[in-house]
Structure prediction request, 642 residues.
Amino acid sequence: MTELQAGRTSESLGVPHTGAQSLRSRYRDLLIALIAFIVLALLPLLTSSKALPDFVIRCSAFGLFATSLNLLVGYTGMISFGHGMFFGLGAYCFGLIMQKTGASIPVAFLATMAITAIVAVIIGAICVRLKEIYFAFVTLAFQMLIHSTILSWVSLTGGDQGLRGGIPRPAFLGIDLSNQIHLYITSLALLVIGLLVMRQIAQSPFGYTLRMIRDNAGRASFIGINVWRVKLTIFVLAALFAAVGGVIMSLFVSGAYPEFAYWTISGEGIFINMLGGITTFLGPMVGTVLLLILNDTVTRMTEYYGIVLGVVILFFAIGLRKGLMDFVVEWYAQRRRSGEGF
Amino acid sequence: MDLDALTGCLASSACVVTQTTSGLIIGMLLFLVAVGLTLIFGVLKVVNFSHGAFYMFGAYFALTAYQLTGSFVLAMLCGAAGTALLGLIFERVFMSQVYGANVLMQLLVCYAFVLIFDDVVRMVWGPEFRSMGMPTAFQVMPLFIAGGVVPPYYLLLIGVALAAAIVLGVGLARTRIGKVIRAAAHNPGMVSALGINTGLIYGGVFALGCMLAGLAGALAAPVRSLTPGMGFSVLIESFIVTVIGGMGSILGALIGALLLGLIRSFGSLGFPLFTEGLMYLFMVIVLVSRPSGLFGKEVA
Prediction:
């Protein structure tokens, strides 16, 4: 077995949970989330530059997307290569509803979630029966199907030009998303709430069922777990969080473009997961920040972005064979163990 | 949607012949790419996600060789041999590191090379569209079959692809090397215990698969325009072919590629904007009814 898989099993073994412990860890998660939210929310006070808030908004969009992908890849062992379709779907649904119907933002948001859930149930019902590489391909094919639908349905989606003319952002509940600071705080809130909910999913009994299916699907089904239904559930849940990321992105750029639904988004999602590490919950978040920084600096320095990115990927895939957070966690565990020896 | 154009075409034999031949050449090119993919998967159990890049290199190598020497045959040979060598190096140096690792690692290594190869082509040959032009030997009167126009180059292309299919099929089924390859696909540990160098077989099969993709690229060079990133759409389509036909089945790849080629050429008449979508739809239908593909082995 690879180091990656070995790392995963050792993680899933050390989980004798008692009720009190899980309650305590839940409060701890909540506390960390609150502190992170407050610190990041105060960030614009420290700097007047617009670049930093913009960066954090993009991090929220991609962070939600990548972390939701990790629910599939890292926790359930389902390597989806088409997760980006839900990112694009969220962006387009939200943008279209806002442009065509003039609904209020919360209504459009909920409608987007409902549509994404329906699409994800249909696509998931077909895909989750398939294993490993077939699953990866078929999700990729669905991604391309959605992408080509967006390109060809010009009257609705604007084809390869994308949704233009801006997305109207009427104020609601005193929140005005056309204001940069309001948008910043809202994306941040969506990110923190999204991460918190996903964390709850990952730490719940359902979350441990996911790990079990990843490690031994046959055994899970022997003890009476309906593997297909569990996989479908997590597929749909992950799709919803990816769609939230898409909504944030469409609010940020005030539009939606076919690239949001293109396969490269999925590729980047996988890569973010790999970069940050898939054995820790926050790994994808770390990966998102790393990739976006890498993106911004490399595109400024050279036009051959692909070569640089490719070499970095190779370094992580062949050199380290794990993500940054995996590395940090293992290093920390090793240090603690050697500390106990004395 | 333009169903009138489709029914109108089906009513005239000339149009049917033209569309069928154009479907056949799309299918045959796809077959060459897809059969390499399926062969590599069947023996090495890895999915070469960067296979499209070899198709691209085949086309560019052929372009350069043709411009330097003016010989069409040399251009084809260069395209095939160059990509085979490139594939061998790629397999020995990089892919062999991730055998047995999980699919994610293999996808990532290939993804890295898709990015790198596209940029390398952009550096060497430039980002703009290039075209090789039809070789003078084939600049002759097209044939007319039942009123439809068939350029002679199309016949050559179909012939070469068919020959490759037959050589490959017979070679795998009847020759000693074919037997060893099939054995290595089945049980590499045992094959290596019998004193056969499995690393050599893996490298050879990978190079063969890449060579077929490169040959497809070289054959496509006179009839398609060349651009960095041209490999990706071909890659996606050959994935569809292998999934429809069943992973690891050569016959499946042939049938799947031809079906897809025909869907593309006739679909472009009836649904000009949704041609790509039609292919994905077809794949979904096949997978829902037969999850392991038309000719794949049943998977539990």
In short: The two ends of chain A are 32 Å apart (CA to CA). Chain A touches chain B at residues 2, 4-5, 73, 79, 81, 126, 129-134, 136-138, 140-142, 144-145, 148-149, 151-152, 154, 263, 267, 270-271, 274, 278, 304-307, 309-311, 313-314, 316-318, 321 (CB under 8 Å). Residues 20-260 of chain A form one domain.
